[in-house]
Write a structure and sequence with these properties.
Rossmann fold; alpha/beta; six-stranded mixed beta sheet; 430 residues; 13 strands
């Protein structure tokens, strides 16, 4: 396959055009923007004939994005290493709707796919004599655990995790702090948005980021977006091969990276219908798509804590991609769900089907009830066992813990305290 090298731009337009390798290493563009590919390739399902597994489909889908990269020839191996995880597409009860289960990785959340992929890329790009590289990550609960698992004991890397103290589940907090070795975990007196702001302020300081050899593993990283596109492409291809219509895709959304991946896959020509963002009581996106000006705001704590984001970073990417048209008329919509409705959905679906859903997936289930479609794909983003203190009292039974999560929960955990201050973070990184 002969492909022209792909170039990458900043959403803010003030940074030099760069390569995939440089964009992956930097995490954030020097002008504070997010990296995006200069162009998008176009695909049909026929382009994937003879390819059946997620790693195979991912390697084909991502080949244009890796054109010109030092990783180009290694892409199939990267996909096999990082993306060889179960990805069931199962019926929702006795309806025609489907559920895409993205929580069968080592930390029981959809973030495992992208974190493993990014780690595999950065490990291959690292020079043998390069100083220790620090992967700085803010987390609302799931990202940090996935990144920690992906980079744990990788030579040449350390991970520094910031999470909002008291605003993640008990099992999420334990998971974040149980790895040890090259994983350092801080609990911050603030919200996820505060943690994210600290990370961006440090990564956006080009000289500081260079001197500390920093990169990011948040969804601001291009290395997170690309593999998330892969599992939506896989899903679209499987559904079309079954002869089913393009589904309305309902995605629990916080920082917007996961939903953006589905939007990009659809825009590349694959078999997905309307994209619906399901948020919790943080109404930034639902207000915008209802006609209000975009306005980031302080986040609100909810039962669906991994989505407690008041100023989604990837909205910047989304607006950049749709700069030449009306974003609100691009077959994208957003709806918010309150805690009472999350609880009601968890109880109803357990009573109806015996299935326990996490609070984030419950948001998507609630939004599905408001839509006229008879062909929906619900994206299930996390295993309910990560939220046992929320879900188990609602359904009246214990939830079996996946083996990998159980093993981690059995380990001792230690998180350090960090003040919500840029200077404190810089001191910790030094």
């Amino acid at each position: 396959m002969n492909l022209n090298p792909m170039r990458y731009l900043s959403t803010r337009g003030q940074a030099p055009i760069t390569t995939l390798d440089a964009a992956l290493a930097a995490g954030l563009a020097p002008d504070g923007g997010l990296y995006v590919p200069e162009t998008l390739p176009h695909f049909t399902t026929g382009d994937f004939d003879g390819l059946d597994t997620l790693p195979e489909i991912a390697a084909r889908l991502l080949a244009p994005f890796f054109a010109g990269s030092r990783l180009q020839s290694q892409l199939p191996d990267i996909c096999s290493e990082a993306l060889d995880l179960p990805i069931p597409i199962v019926p929702l009860g006795d309806s025609d709707d489907l559920v895409l289960e993205l929580f069968h990785g080592p930390t029981a959340a959809f973030k495992d796919f992208a974190a493993r992929f990014l780690a595999a890329c950065l490990a291959r790009l690292r020079a043998p004599d390069e100083p220790l590289r620090t992967v700085l990550v803010a987390t609302s609960g799931d990202t940090g655990g996935a990144v920690a698992a992906a980079f744990h004991r990788r030579p040449g890397f350390r991970v520094v995790i910031l999470y909002p103290d008291g605003r993640v589940s008990a099992r999420q907090a334990h998971q974040l702090a149980a790895f040890g070795d090259n994983i350092i975990t801080y609990k911050v007196d603030g919200s996820f948005d505060d943690c994210q702001r600290l990370v961006k302020s440090v990564l956006g300081d080009v000289e500081l980021a260079r001197s500390l050899n920093l990169t990011s593993a948040n969804s601001i990283s291009l290395g997170r977006l690309l593999p998330q596109m892969a599992y939506y492409a896989y899903t679209a291809i499987q559904i079309q091969r079954r002869g089913q219509a393009a589904p309305t895709v309902i995605i629990p959304s916080g920082n917007l990276g996961n939903a953006l991946a589905a939007i990009v896959v659809r825009d590349m020509g694959l078999h997905l219908g309307d994209i619906v963002l399901a948020t919790n009581a943080n109404q930034t996106l639902s207000d915008y798509f209802a006609g209000a000006d975009y306005q980031g705001r302080p986040s609100i704590a909810t039962l669906a804590n991994a989505m407690d984001v008041g100023d989604p970073s990837n909205f910047e990417r989304l607006r950049w991609w749709f700069k030449d048209c009306d974003l609100r008329h691009s077959n994208i919509e957003a709806h918010w769900v309150d805690d009472a409705t999350i609880e009601q959905q968890i109880k109803v679906w357990h009573s109806r089907t015996g299935t326990a859903f996490c609070p984030h997936t419950a948001c998507a289930l609630a939004v599905r009830e408001r839509l006229p479609t008879n062909n929906a794909l619900i994206v299930a983003t996390a295993h309910p066992a990560k939220f046992n203190e929320i879900v188990e009292p609602m359904i009246g039974r214990e939830i079996a813990v996946p083996p990998a999560l159980a093993q981690l929960l059995a380990q001792p955990a230690h998180a350090q305290t960090l003040t919500n201050d840029r200077g404190a973070l810089i001191a910790a990184l030094r």
